[in-house]
Amino acid sequence: MESFLPGTASLIDCVDKKLLVVLRDGRNLIGILRSYDQFANLVLQDTLERIIVNDCYGEKERGVFIIRGENVVLLDKEKDGYPTLNKVSYEKIKELHEQEIKDKKARELQKQKILLERGFSEEFGDYDLY
After folding, report:
1. Rounded to whole angstroms, what are the CA distances from 5 to 12, 71, 114?
2. DSSP string spanning 54-121?
3. Where are the domains of the chain?
4. What is the widest separation between alpha-carbon atoms in the chain?
5. Where is the secretion signal located (predicted)?
6. What global pTM score does this model have?
């Protein structure tokens, strides 16, 4: 990604390289970029899904992953390892992540309740709490 070309042409340097892809839904995927198109749709091979919660992280193998370009938030070269994070099993990190999502929803609902009591209208639904 040294030389910048407009549009998806700048991805040409990334083919066959290990990349980190962050999606709109918050998932982090690490894999080898095998292909892309003019819409920035991506094909990753040997893909891992990585979940990070507080000072822990876990990974799960996902294999070949096809990603629609509109869902990509960030694309960067993968840096190996997290020296300050503790690696835990995927089951444990998934449990911690689900609890984090529940806690976030509870905080947002409490905030929404306070705003409604103060006369503000409800402007979002469950889909905005992620």
Report:
1. 9, 21, 48
2. TTEEEEEEEEEEEE-GGGEEEEEEPPP--TTSEE--HHHHHHHHHHHHHHHHHHHHHHHHHHHHTTPP
3. 7-118
4. 54
5. none
6. 0.73
**Distance (Å, rounded) from C-alpha 90 to C-alpha 50?**
9
pLDDT, tens digit, for every residue of 48-106?
999 988 888 899 999 999 999 999 999 988 777 667 888 889 999 999 999 999 999 99
Residue 15 identity (one-letter amino acid):
V
Is 7-118 a domain of CATH 2.120.10.30? Answer: no
| pLDDT tens digits along 36-51 | 998 889 999 999 999 9
How far apart CA 25 and CA 123 sit, in angstroms, is 20
Residue closest to 44 by CA, chosen among 24, 28, 25, 26: 28
